[in-house]
Design goal:
The chain has about 180 residues and is mostly beta strands. The protein is about 0% helix and about 40% strand. The protein has one helix and 13 strands, in the order βββββββββββββα. Strands 1-2-10-7-12-5 form a six-stranded antiparallel beta sheet, with no helix packed on it. A hairpin with a 2-residue loop joins β3 and β4.
Length: about 180
């Protein structure tokens, strides 16, 4: 049975996904909207592959929520709540995920900065509730001491975008009302 649990950040949920095995292999249901009643319809899915020591993030959206499904590999997830109206504003969460042992989903509402460090090759299937246009892509410095995420690598492989993300003190997080 699928279990949805809290992460310590308001509205951010871990979903334990149950594989159904038989002699041919397995089938795993990875998303069902009823598991996350506060979510909107997911409209786009993407698949990323990351090499070991790649760190993606910290990213955040002001209008878009994400649902991550780790397909394979070991990842360390860092989250930081930027939402003005959240009871956990300014709090972080760190989550170790080993998708080779247990399939896991992670729901991330808009306004929560998110990133992950690949500790092995990682395949991540992620769903979003707004189509990609580039207009709602924001970043926060992965190693900002005011965020305080204890990443497991000191010198990760970063994109140019992530290397240039500003510190928390320079991040504007006010958003217009969530569409829909």
């Amino acid at each position: 049975m699928t279990k949805v649990s809290a992460t310590g950040l308001a509205g951010v949920h871990l979903v334990s996904l149950e594989p159904h095995d038989d002699p041919r292999g397995s089938l795993t249901e990875v998303f069902r909207r009823e598991w996350l009643p506060e979510s909107r319809e997911m409209v786009q899915a993407n698949l990323s592959r990351s090499q070991p020591n790649v760190l993606r993030g910290l990213h955040f959206h002001l209008r878009q929520a994400d649902y991550w499904c780790f397909v394979s590999g070991i990842a360390f997830v860092g989250l930081f709540d930027l939402r003005d109206d959240s009871p956990t504003r300014g709090h972080k969460a760190e989550i170790a995920i080993d998708a080779d042992r247990e399939r896991t989903g992670l729901y991330i509402p808009s306004g929560v900065a998110h990133g992950f460090c690949a500790l092995s090759e990682v395949r991540l299937l992620y769903f979003v509730d707004a189509y990609y246009t580039g207009e709602d892509e924001h970043g926060l410095a992965w190693n900002d001491p005011d965020v305080g995420i204890d990443w497991p690598v000191a010198d990760p492989v970063l994109s140019d975008r992530d290397r240039a993300n500003p510190p928390l003190a320079h991040v504007a997080t006010s958003a217009p009302p969530h569409p829909g």
